[in-house]
Structure of Kynureninase:
Amino acid sequence: MTTRKLTDPSYADALDHATDLGATHERFLLPPGRIYLDGNSLGALPAGVPERVARAIRHEWGDGLIGSWLDAGWAGLADGVAAKLAPLLGVDPADIQLGDSTSVTLFKTLYAACRRRPDRRTILVDPTTFPTDGYVARGVADALGLELRWSEPGDPAAALDEHVAVLLVNHVDFRTGALLDLRETARAAHAAGALLLADICHSAGSVPMTLLDDDVDLAVGCTYKYLNGGPGAPAFGWVTPRLHAGLTHPIPGWWGHAEPFAMSLEYQPAAGAARMASGTPPVIALTALDAALDAFAGVEPAALRARSLSLTDYFIALVDDQCGTSVEVVTPRDGHRRGSQVSLRHPAAYGVVQALIARGVVGDFRAPDIARFGFAALYLSHRDVLAAVEELAAVLRTDEFAHPRFAVLQAIT
Ligand SMILES: Cc1ncc(COP(=O)(O)O)c(C=O)c1O
Ligand SMILES: Nc1c(O)cccc1C(=O)C[C@H](N)C(=O)O
């Protein structure tokens, strides 16, 4: 019996076959000749989006004008999107609210959470968080006269005590790709009398979730990464039904009113999570997101996760095999503790990423020394992974990363 080598294309094909999702890559429009490993920053363009958005603009807006709020279903668009999103998160669509940016949704959600623990004075945040979460937490703390406390990096639950109102965590660490156990963290937060708010930007659409069963209290996430909603796509917030009654947030606008068109002077919050809305929903962006989520049709979250883990396992194995000790894998090797990205440490990581982009392999750089690669299982194959690591090994072997044109940090990725 012959054992196939890791670098044998037929080995990659066998892995593809074992984790087949049914040609879902055909649901995306990707530029030829490029291997896109940055879907953890901005997801690729789903094939159904351009036409759907063009129709919304030309016919629904152009011809239907104001009538499209009802005739084209604009008023209920966010509900339709929530219905497609809910199974990926393990929640009821009625408990999801969409429309603002992640940062704004986080401000409103964190504020609402803190108000549910009026006897507590502290917001606890892990310093490894994506920076906007820390800035927003500071803003909420200032607005409510609370204390912002940083935990030990990577160990937020250990810093819980009787003063903590809300523990704010990132489900997946944006630098390392490490995955937090939300069920365990919720248990620890509740044991200390605190609420758990999870930022699931880097897991939504790649890691199956059971937020309700895991007893998470609140969550926020963006839709432009693994959910492929497009640049600046509307974020979502989720609040467990247990907390709905009496939930208040800082921007109680008319779209969160029980009867917006009653035009009443009195604010009457809508039932449930709908009260978390503020202003008019971004219809064109929601239309793009609605069409984008069709790329998940018929895909079981568990099968998506199995393929994602296979892609990241294969990437790590190839890096070990082809790149030796020139890079350090900083992402957990245990799949249970990993999201859908792999991060490599290298002293010239910026140059490595730029040299790879020049060769058609798109990842990104995070200061000071991390080269980050995201694996969107819907549109990537194991052959893509093999080709990407071949290019990476060549970049490292030839010192291409040290070229002066890659010396100046100037890209937004
Ligand atoms: C964990 C996390 N939270 C929040 C954000 C961004 O928030 P916003 O959509 O407001 O730019 C990002 C990425 O940009 C992120 O990775
Ligand atoms: N939201 C982004 C943007 O508006 C421009 C460039 C990148 C982003 C990102 O999403 C970055 C991403 N959250 C990260 O993990 O670094």
